[in-house]
Amino acid sequence: MWWNFAARTPEEITEARTAWQEGQRFGDVHGYAGPRLPAPQLPVTPLKARGRER
């Protein structure tokens, strides 16, 4: 998980961020009058999967 995205791989997170920035794949937030919030820049360090906690 990163920002508002959940994915299985760092590549999927990158794809989701790109789709968000381009206004694709994600619907509008009804009732929100402002502009679409931009996703923050991806971190410079590689995203790393966390282990499952029980």
Global geometry: elongated
Give me the oligomer status: single chain
SSE pattern:
H
Structural class: mainly alpha
How large is the share of residues in beta strands? under 5%
**What's the tally of helices?**
1
| C-alpha Rg (nearest Å) | 13 Å
The poorly predicted ranges are none
Mean pLDDT: 87
Count of beta strands: 0
Q: How much helix is in the residues?
A: 10-25%
Distance between the termini: 17 Å
Query: Mind describing the biggest β-sheet?
Result: none
Give the structure's gist in a few sentences:
It is elongated and about 40 Å long.
Structure characterization notes:
This protein is an all-alpha fold and 54 residues long. Helices cover 22% and strands 0% of the residues. It contains one helix and no strands. It is elongated, with a radius of gyration of 13 Å. The chain starts with 9 loop residues before the first helix and ends in a 33-residue tail after the last helix. The relative contact order is 0.21. The mean pLDDT is 87.
